[in-house]
């Protein structure tokens, strides 16, 4: 299953497919430090509002 247009070079397609398979298998996480969160909060309007307000406080 290719994730790039068919008119792209096959080498690029193979690289993209390999990266996709790596991420799907969870292999991406071995490249990230342990402190990077693996689980995230459910995106809700309330969460988006909290993030927006926090960013505004930082930008002042």
Q: What count of structural domains?
A: 1
Q: Could you say which structural class the secondary elements and strand pairing correspond to? A: mainly alpha
Mean pLDDT across every amino acid position:
80
- What overall geometry do the principal axes of the alpha carbons give? elongated
Q: How do the SSEs run, as a string of H and E?
A: HH
Number of helices: 2
Helix fraction, binned, reads 40-55%
Q: How can the largest sheet be summarized?
A: none
Radius of gyration: 18 Å
* Beta-strand residue fraction: under 5%
Number of strand segments = 0
Low-confidence stretches: none
State the end-to-end distance.
Answer: 47 Å
Structure characterization notes:
With about 60 residues, the chain is mostly helical. It has one domain (about 10-60). Helices cover about 50% and strands about 0% of the residues. The chain contains 2 helices and no strands. The longest helix has 15 residues, at about 10-25. The model has no long low-confidence stretch (mean pLDDT about 80).
Short description:
The chain is mostly helical. The protein has helices at residues 10-24, 45-59.
Please give the structural blueprint.
Blueprint: H1 10-24, H2 45-59
Features:
single chain, 60 residues, mainly alpha, 2 helices, elongated
């Amino acid at each position: 299953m290719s994730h790039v247009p068919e008119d792209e070079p096959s080498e690029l397609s193979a690289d993209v497919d390999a990266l996709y398979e790596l991420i799907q298998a969870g292999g991406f996480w071995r490249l990230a430090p342990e402190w990077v969160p693996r689980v995230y909060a459910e995106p809700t309007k309330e969460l988006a509002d909290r993030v927006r307000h926090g960013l505004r406080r930082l930008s002042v």
